[in-house]
From TrEMBL:
Keywords associated with the record: Oxidoreductase
Molecular function via GO: peptide-methionine (S)-S-oxide reductase activity
Cited SUPFAM superfamilies: Peptide methionine sulfoxide reductase
The protein's name in its UniProt record: peptide-methionine (S)-S-oxide reductase
Upper taxonomic lineage: Eukaryota, Fungi, Dikarya, Ascomycota, Saccharomycotina
EC identifiers of the protein: 1.8.4.11
Length: 137
């Protein structure tokens, strides 16, 4: 009987680990941008995105590691999805054809916890990422 309990405990741990893996894959730290297309185009915003972070690192940004730090663009409609994929292809050669950014429709968006809101405003020296700067590409 003890062996069965141990086996069940192992199975529970494996299931819990799988659950944690799934949760980590689903969640991404993102920001949702509202913009006026008569002032700036989606193509320009995405160009700035590709100039200011490293889209070639899988599941990380600077010192932060994990699937929640993956490079991703989530769109709200088919036209934006088409533009995002087009801009990604335009930037591929500029990044040595190594961009790993996922481009896909958004499924859900949730506001981050309160302590993440205006994080750098509230913690001016709280975060520096050596991979975030404007590149001349």
């Amino acid at each position: 009987m003890q062996k069965l309990v141990l086996l069940m405990d192992k199975l529970k741990i494996q299931l819990i680990n799988k659950f944690v893996e799934v949760i980590q894959i689903v969640i991404a730290e993102v920001l949702q941008i509202s913009y006026d297309p008569s002032t700036v185009s989606l193509k320009e915003l995405l160009g700035f995105f590709y100039k200011t972070h490293d889209p070639t690192t899988l599941n990380s940004q600077g010192p932060d590691q994990g699937t929640q730090y993956r490079s991703a663009i989530f769109t709200h409609d088919d036209e934006d999805l088409k533009i995002a994929k087009q801009v990604t292809e335009e930037y591929q050669p500029k990044w040595g054809n190594a961009i790993v950014t996922k481009v896909e429709p958004i499924k859900n968006f949730y506001d981050a916890e309160d302590y993440h809101q205006l994080y750098l405003h509230n913690n001016p020296s709280g975060y520096e990422c050596p991979t975030h700067f404007v590149r001349n590409i």
